[in-house]
Every structure is written in C-alpha cells, then in structure tokens.
Write a structure and sequence with these properties.
Elements lengths: L1 E2 L31 H27 L7 H13 L8 H24 L8 E4 L6 E5 L1 E2 L6 H28 L2 E2 L9 E3 L3 H10 L8 E2 L2 H16 L7 H10 L3 H18 L3 H12 L14 H17 L5 E3 L4
Parallel strand pairs: 1-4
Antiparallel strand pairs: 2-3, 5-7, 6-8
Helix pairs in contact: 1-2, 1-3, 3-4, 3-6, 4-5, 4-6, 4-7, 4-10, 6-10, 8-9
C-alpha cells in the first residue's frame, strides 16, 4: 500500500466528530481506463508463478530439494518439453496469488468503505524464485483520520493471514517426511512460529529439517514472510501505518529505531535485513501527516495487539539462507 500526492479533487473534511470517521468526502477523479493494466499484470504474474510452481512440483514429486539451481535447469527443460506439466504449478501459483490478492483487497475494501480513492491491486511478475515481487495498491486521496488510517493499514495483513492459515495447514497435510530434506539445496528456508506450531500438530515428533513442504505450503510460507515484512513498524509499511495511528508525529523517530534494530539482526542472522534497513532508512521514512488528535478506541487497541501477535507468529530471524547444495 503506497500513498500518492493529494489530487486536486480532494476537499477538506467536514467539522470533526471527535474521531474523524466518515466525516470527510473525497471527490473521485474520472475513470482512468487502466483496468487492462491490472488484468495484464495479474495474468503475467499467474504465468510466472505457475512456471516456478511447476518446477517446485517437479522437485517435490521426484524428492529433490525444492531449490537446486543445477537440477532446476534440467527440471525446466523437462517442463517446457511437455507444456501440459505446467498445470502442476497451479496449486502453488493460485495459492500465492490468493494470499496476495486477499491482502491487497483488504486494503482496497477498507478504502472503499471510507470512500478513500485507491487503485485496484497491481501485481508484479518477476523472474524470482517464486515468480513475483508481490502486489500493491496506490492510495490517491488524503486520509484525515488516524482511525481510518489504522483500519486501512491493518485490513491487508489480517485478510492475508486469514487466507494463508488454512493454505498452510492444507499444504502441510500434503507434505512428506524425508530425512534432512529441508537443509538440502541452494536455498534453506527458516521456520516461522506459525509453521512450527502447525508442524507440531500435523507431524508430531518430526524435526523441521525432515519435512518437505508441498508447493501449497511453500506458497503459504511466502505469504507468511510477506506478512512479517508488511507488519514491520516502519515508514509506510502496513505496520508503519498502524504505528503512526497511535504515535502521530513520533512515528519518524520510532521508525528509525525499529529500522536500526534490523542492522544487528542482519549482521548475525540474515544479511537480507541489512538491505531492508538501508532501503527503509533512505526511502521509507516519510509518512503523510494527519492532523487528528482523536485517540484509538479500545476495539482498535485490541486489533493492534492482534496485529502484533500475527507479526510475532510470522517473523523469522533468518528467513532465507544459502545452502551447500546436495
């Protein structure tokens, strides 16, 4: 979710009601005629994620590590030699797109409820190991209430988490036990708390390193990682919006503190956090000001605690590490 400069169609709020909720009106700009772009991007993302999913399905079926660059090249040759096998990638791609879409629609529907002008989701196809860089919406009108900001910010992560939980459980049910498989290959994935808890239920007594995740569970893992990233209480991330709704002008200071906390984690656990700390320090600190002094009500405070629980269940100190291959 990203903010854009306020358009000329926005008008000041009506007199405050103590909370600012639904007391302002945004004049929507005329239709932009770009629905074709949203459709094109999601179709391209479906293709790229399905290709990557077919590779995962091939490796899963043949009991090979999920990500092994040398053998993956052979797998891709086999798949393109028989394009019908691309259908095997649909469980991964449809699961991943459903999680991403739920997250972005959570934001979008909250914007629609409060009559905040926002775009439909933009999906980002990319030649990554999962076939995408995620999705986002653009908010094109001002937000005058911190409670509205909170509702829009929290709606995405909670909606995505509600969808990924059953997907993770179903994917784990179709996973299998192969001694040491999780530590093989070129990429080794961390074990977030929510995955560990479900593993104790579905595979009691089995070590995490022995569980080979089904592609559906792999897609849900990506959703868990994306949820943790989005809930970081920094800048214009979803967690940053939630933070701003509570602390207002102190948001920039707290964002810097939390971004700085990523540095030792990056040094000792996963270098990727250093990259995120750099990007957030220099490109993600600004947040549009909201002049609203209304405090958060008890219900939203409870939702904030729920968001914290979701973050702790999703966060992994070392989500991705390079392996020695197999």
């Amino acid at each position: 979710m990203s903010f854009q400069s306020f358009p000329p169609g926005a008008v000041p709020p009506e007199p405050a009601d103590g909370a600012g909720l639904r007391r302002y009106r945004v004049i929507f700009p005329s239709a932009r005629g770009r629905h074709w772009l949203h459709v094109l991007l999601i179709v391209l993302t479906l293709i790229t994620t399905t290709v990557m999913g077919a590779r995962l399905a091939h490796n899963f079926r043949t009991n090979r590590p999920a990500f092994d660059l040398e053998r993956d090249l052979v797998a891709m040759i086999v798949i393109w030699g028989d394009p019908a096998r691309l259908l095997e990638g649909l469980p991964f791609s449809l699961t991943l797109l459903a999680i991403l879409l739920a997250h972005e629609l959570g934001h979008y529907l909250a914007c629609a409820y409060y009559r905040v002008d926002a775009s439909l989701p933009y999906f980002l196809p990319a030649p990554t190991f999962i076939g995408t860089l995620g999705a986002f919406i653009r908010i094109r009108s001002p937000i005058y209430s911190r409670r509205v900001l909170f509702d829009i910010g929290i709606a995405g992560p909670l909606a995505g988490f509600v969808v990924l939980l059953p997907a993770l459980a179903i994917g784990l049910a179709y996973s299998k036990v192969i001694p040491g498989i999780a530590q093989r290959g070129d990429l080794i994935f961390g074990n977030p708390p929510v995955l560990w808890l479900l593993q104790q239920i579905i595979f009691p007594g089995v070590a995490h390193s022995d569980i080979y995740l089904h592609p559906v569970a792999r897609a849900a893992w990506v959703g868990v990682f994306a949820t943790a990233l989005n809930l970081l209480p920094i800048g214009q991330l979803d967690g940053g919006h939630i933070l701003y709704s509570f602390v207002g002008d102190r948001h920039r200071l707290y964002s810097r503190i939390f971004a700085a906390a990523l540095i030792p984690i990056g040094i000792f656990c996963w270098y990727g956090w250093l990259l995120w700390a750099f990007l957030l320090f220099f490109f993600g600190m600004r947040h549009p000001s909201i002049y609203d002094s209304a405090p958060m009500d008890p219900g939203r405070r409870r939702l904030a605690w729920l968001a914290l629980v979701v973050f702790l269940l999703s966060f992994t100190l070392a989500p991705i590490q390079t392996g020695a291959g197999s």
